[in-house]
Amino acid sequence: MNRLILGVQPVREALRAHAANVLWIALQSDTPRLDGLRSLAESLGVEVRNASRFELDRLSRGEYHQGVAAEAPPLRLVKLDKLLAGQAHPVILALDGIQDPQNFGATVRSAVGLNRSAILWGENSSAPLTATTFRASAGAIEHATLCRTPSLTAALQAAVAAGYQVLGLDGHAEKSLGNFTLSQPTVIVVGNEGKGIGKGVRRQCTDFARVASPDTVDSLNASVAAALALYEVCRQRGVL
Q: What is the pTM of this model?
């Protein structure tokens, strides 16, 4: 099924990624941002439709739309075997039970912005790929490498067999993430907002690491922890 994208920045990124089929813009929109989206869509041959605020409200089902919406095909998902056999020295961010669309989207944004890291997650107990998630990623999801798997536990087991180190983020781990060599193929696991990493997934981790001192905070927001971990990856790989 096609998907709905809402908001100026997510729609702009969908257009830039050539992922939009139809664009709806509020009638009598004379703001530079919306005018710019209209011009971009028209230059790309995307169908542009004028819509009333009522029509946009109905289309978005009450979600915040900023006067613009777009229809796009489903996101392209990469199969696990292709993901694991991808780059020479890949880093994958695995999300274990991240159910908050804001956290999921913000994490995708960090993954794209820091080292173009791939996102791996299990299809159960995870935030759905909805307009809320797309907006939280500020459109970065249009440029992300995404892999949804029936079982995150089995996927991590396959990653270890393929030569990856699998590091679970744990605020109480003895070692800091900086103590690990992150230039090798690595999966970084971020746990659920409340429960952390599940037992089955923990058993697949080759080690655990923290990204903040346990003396200062007990735990970090999932998307913040992911961003800090990916920053450390970039620092070690000399891409910052």
A: 0.90
